[in-house]
Amino acid sequence: MDASVLSALVGLIGVGAGAGATFGGVVYQQRHGTREARAARLRGEAVAAAEKILAELLAMQHSLRLGSHGATEEERRDYARILQHHHATIQLHSQWLPDAELRSRVTVNALYTQVGPVGDSRSDVERRGHGMALCADSIACLGAYLRSEAVPVRDAYVDQILARWPEGSTRPELHTFIVSGPSAESDETPASSR
Q: Among 46, 94, 113, 146, which is disulfide-ready with 131 (CB 3.0 to 4.6 Å)?
């Protein structure tokens, strides 16, 4: 074979290998960029959800701090609806949190700020104090998440609060339901509906 043909053939193989390597590099960069963009988008959604949950937790703590002592029956129903709204909003936005442990912890704490165990004998002040402690635990967890730290160990006091619901540890569905209050019709007595 002629040296010029051999040199042209080697040059052509070199150009093909270079083009293949360039194309492979472009595809790799594009896929890597797409994965990074998706990860950044998901992290952004999770951070926005965590910020919304933090705002709801602070509002819930404020409501618990004020309580409904001395309020009329209508004001007490409004107070319960406000707590239920905060709980529902926390449940909704927690679905964007990627960490299952964090998601569970935040939703369980939100639920137990407003419900009590069967035969709950706590005073209103104790229930509200326990609710604020559960909110503080969730706030600490979300703060750790936003700082990219591990979920902190649950405080012993919060463990004692949650120990009041032994059925909650064996029935995980209790952690995710949204509490509903009495219907408007149940407020009427048979005598008043005539």
A: 113
